[in-house]
Amino acid sequence: MKHLLDTQGLAYHDALAILDTAEEMTAVSSRQVKKLPTLRGRTVVNLFYEDSTRTRISFEAAAKRLSADVMNFSAKGSSVSKGESLKDTVQTLDAMGADAIVIRHSASGAAAQLAASDWSEAAVVNAGDGTHEHPTQALLDALTLRRGWSSAHLNGPRGTDLTGMKVLIVGDIVHSRVARSNVWLLRTLGAEVHLAAPATLLPYGVESWPAIVHYSLDEALSAAPDAVMMLRVQAERMGGVFFPTAAEYTRRWGLTDERLRVVEQLRLGDTDSPALILHPGPMNRGVEISSAAADSPQAKILDQVAHGVAVRMAVLHLLLSQRQHDGNHDE
Predict the structure, then answer these.
(1) What is the pTM of this model?
(2) Which of 77, 84, 131, 262 has its CA at a distance of 20 to 30 angstroms from the CA of residue 184?
């Protein structure tokens, strides 16, 4: 694995390697000294052209816990505001000795363009590109799901996939790079993926995705999913009217207190363990998810945040340690 650009092209063995390595990295967060010397002397650049809290801080924490040097770049207040191109920015960072570039960009395909170019020899990690993909979010979601699935079935998570698990993703699918990355990764790991959304929030060609589509959330819940992942309504990406009102969206598509009672009766497979509730954040409480659902014992939202650091540690470790072992940056 030279870069991490998407999950659609992520091989099964690479996905498991990341998850298994992340399992080891979770132990670091519980230690008194949360540091490993793995990437000492390496430089990780967080190149963010879009606002971010969880992802940027998570990547920064991951790099620092591996003892890497970190440079944070925000497009706001930089030469980008003066018209500097992505190419010139990346070449500047490469001249400063970047070993890995974590990029978030509003343009779909920006990370792939960077990886395919000769602008830099650094490893490229896609931290979200337009409405295309967000692979590390899907990986941290998969780690959260795998831990719940394996513990319910009394077997250790290392080396296991999600075969037999049924995951329901609900909401603003059309604008969600998280949904796209999750669909591909969860299918690679053996899960059965269901999507539930109004027709206006489903992307063109969704029928070709490896997922079962529902046009009613209540109908989708009757299929007894093992996990329900609610998506944020991305109003900032909506140029038109995709549903009548926020209240109407909540009534038909939100994980309300009433639907929470339905989810509370769902179980993980044939076990007595409760079904899981996930949300990639940030949440619009009272819109796509009620406060009761977000704060319920079944919700693994804070676990997702914690697992994000472990997964990003694993990704940086696997990408840069291999290059360090090779003794160069050559692909």
Answers:
(1) 0.93
(2) 262
